Request: fold
Amino acid sequence: MFDIVLSNGTVYDGSGADGLRADVAVKDGRIAAIGLLADAQAAERVDVSGLAVAPGFVDLHTHSDFTLVVNGAAESQVHQGVTTEVIGQCGFSCAPLRSSGDLPVLASGYGIGVRERRRWRTFAEYLDVLQSTPLGVNVAALVGHSTVHQAVLGDALKPGDPEDVAQMKRLVEESLDGGAAGFSTGLEYWPGIMAAPEHLVPLCEAAAQRGKLYATHVRNRDRYYDLGFAEALAAARLSGARLQISHIQTKFGAPAHAMEHTLEMVHAARRHGTDVAIDVIPHDWNNTTVISILPKWAREGGTEQTLARLRDPSVRERVKANPAPMLLIVAAGQWDRIVLLNASVNAAFVGASFAEIGKARGVDPYDALMDMLIEEGDAASRMLWATQSFTDADVEMAMRDSSCAVISDTAALAPYGDLADELFSLSGYGWAARFLQYYVRDRKVLPLAEAIRRITSLPAERIGLRDRGSLRPGQCADVTVFDPALIESRFSAKAPRAYPTGIAHVLVNGVFSMRDGARTEGNAGQVLRDAGH
Ligand SMILES: [Zn+2]
Reply:
């Protein structure tokens, strides 16, 4: 007797193989059988004819570290078929901290209502807090280099002496042994930006020794793109770590051949023994913190000192003249392609371009962004923007690479409660749907079966989840049932919190989280502490 049988669907097992007409049976949270099960006994039978039955979507790169603690229901993700997220990316994780009184200011979604509620210091304690939260998705978590760096050195302007690096390594090891699924860096962000390869390789070795992934947001994806990618490949080669190059698309200001050259570098490294794979955001808009446009010298001493510095006109001139800012589209002054995504004091400007904001405030847009950082105060590092720094040509070139997973780079949110006003990316409520609709159905960049592999078995294999990402007997019953002809993202810059259409049912560990297109009460997600190879 099965618990659930999904009958008459077109079953995509996640391997990239074509869909087959079959029934899928679930028992005790696992896939029990796949085949012709019309005569089998089942407590519940759901007719899914005409629909695609896929493994639940695995989002290999998110920033939900804090938002899941605030509201674990992960509405924005569950509504588009996501069943597993990998958090702790780009060097930012919620742990380890120096003391449990510290706020992990590097984590996104910082502090929203959490300050008073939950405490942790070590990575294992953080995972315990997550586990005690009802979760709409399964969660694997990387430990972030910037967080570890800050736990050791605070906001001092220095990369760390050998003894500091040894201490960082101990923290990374303790975190990995405490359940972290891997290690990440964000080398364009404070304070990760200060690290050189000799600081990073020992930390990557800790991941390598445990068969865990090293994921990196590389230093530069524009003018010096080749140096940034080479640094990532060198760290993997020297440490032996399995490498994931995060959101690989090159940015505004890169030469036209940069994406092609980058893929060649990846292929050459792989031919010579480096275990490297990549992922891409299915959009030509990126999203990040506004404060990261400031050069590292401006960040010394923490947020308060940073903002005090920005009151000085000569400092502002130096910031504007920074020869290598994180986003060259900002340096180029293309303010109409830069949109405010998230702010508190300045919430009224969310959704407006910086061209519009500058005009409304009667100042140069660069001064407007610095004024607004000052006005946001404590929340300055929560201010986010989106820029049209990518191109569809690059996105599609990356997607055609068979090692390329497709990711959100967003945070799990909900359009109600403490997270109602939060936004992390333009496509946060619709990235997976947009991938399947825009790049797969409309532009035919990939066949559907292969597209499903990029958001299921491929990311599950990269992070080392042996019993997720595929539809096979014995696997955990994470299942997404959708209509490939109707799946469609509905978000826009003006109305970004719109759920997609076309998702019919979602099961997480054998429990419905979506049923007949609507969210259920189901929050059966688990914290996954044993990811790795
Ligand atoms: Zn990143």
